[in-house]
Task: structure prediction
Amino acid sequence: MKRLLYTTGKRLKTLEYWLTARMVIGILTLLRKLPPEKALDLAEKVARKLGPKVGRHRLAVDNLRHAYPEKSEAELQTIALDMWGNMARLAAEYVFLDKLFDFDPEAETPGRVEVEGVEIFKRLRDEKDVPHIFFTGHLGNFEFLPIAAARFELATTSLFRPPNNPYVADYILKTRSSAMGGLVPSQAGAALQLARVLDDGGNIGVLVDQKFRKGVKTHFFGRECKTNPLLPKLARQYGCDVYPARCKRLPGGRYRLIVEDKITLPTQADGMIDIEASAQLLNDVVERWVREDPGQWMWFHKRWEM
Result:
């Protein structure tokens, strides 16, 4: 009986995933028929109305209260609405990556996408067969970062956490793979795959602002959380430089990609990279970015769940 219930439950969950994926992919396909600007504006408008009605909105506002105790309820709600608008745009932008990303390193006139830190990209490009690590957070359209790196002949393999829905995950993976470099799902064996890339003198990109149950204890916005130690461990093993990078949404449907110069990871008395202190430094960098543009981060994420 237990086996029958388990099998039935598993099949129902699979059916739920399939139906949800069909709906999501159907909506994105319909949006693809519209001009990009109209599709993104429509997605944001709908999200701003529906977002406050879902349970994750309460979680987002609660996280915001802890992060900004000095702000009024109205201010927190405004940030939460901006967040929903940003996330809706991000979802819709998956189907327009080929149309939206127009950055050309040789162009004299800036397009929809601009890059701050061009000289850093060029310098790294000239460092032949030297591995580098880029890290970012879920800000703006972070998917543009590996595409930009590729434009500078800096092919980057990115670590990403696929959605729980396997059908949606497969759709996103195919969409992303057609527009950017290599992708490594965050699962068993991911560390070895990234290590091979660095071992071959390649570049990797890592999102560092997600919950990681087996991570090291750190703080983010003054609250304890766990952070994935993978990046500092790889940096310690390969001695490669680490560069912060982010995407910032600008008015008028434009984007600014910002690549900062390399950071110095904290070390222990023996000169080895301090894993916990380095993980905290990564959090501090992302927190600085989020404080600059709080409406462009995903506050509904269970970042502080221990």
